[in-house]
Amino acid sequence: MPIFKSPAFIQQCFAVHPLSLSVKMVDLPEKVGIFCENCNMRHRLQVTTCQSQIGEEPFTDVGAAHSLKQCMADHAVDLRVSQISPQSDSVQFRCRLCRRAYHMDVSLFETHQK
């Protein structure tokens, strides 16, 4: 199984079929795993910072990792990728149920192809 260390693969999945990306693993403070159901690729992100936001409030890192873990445990199906920026090495998630947004700075993007 080849491993690609580039944000280009997850960016391509997000651009072509964003609803096929689902968060499968949250092991903060370091790792987040995303699976693309359409092309059967697993994307692993090495996270350096995690921030959260509710509504129009500014992003904050106070309790962000805990909130993300709680969203993943309670209602993972409602947690979706909302933005990927290879230029700034960042990813954003949004939880539909609790209306919280998460912003993460990523130091390493890996894609595992089946």
Q: Please report the distance between the alpha carbons of the first and last residues.
A: 6 Å
**Main sheet overview:** 7 strands, antiparallel
Low-confidence stretches: none
Helix content: 10-25%
Structural class: alpha+beta
Instruction: Count all strands and give the number.
Output: 7
Please state the overall shape, judged from the principal axes of the Cα atoms: globular
Please write the string of helix (H) and strand (E) elements: EHEEEHEEE
Average pLDDT figure = 93
What multimeric state do the chains show? single chain
Question: Helical segment tally?
Answer: 2
* Rg, alpha carbons: 13 Å
Which helices and strands occur, and which strands form pairs?
Blueprint: E1 3-4, H1 8-16, E2 21-27, E3 31-36, E4 41-54, H2 64-75, E5 79-85, E6 90-95, E7 100-113
Characterize the structure shown:
It is a single chain. With 114 residues, the chain is α+β, with helices and mostly antiparallel strands. The chain is 18% helix and 49% strand. The chain has 2 helices and 7 strands. The chain has helices spanning 8-16, 64-75, and strands spanning 3-4, 21-27, 31-36, 41-54, 79-85, 90-95, 100-113. Strands 1, 2, 3, 4, 5, 6 and 7 form a 7-stranded antiparallel beta sheet that branches. A hairpin with a 4-residue loop joins strand 6 and strand 7 (100-113). It is globular and about 40 Å long. The N and C termini lie close together (6 Å).
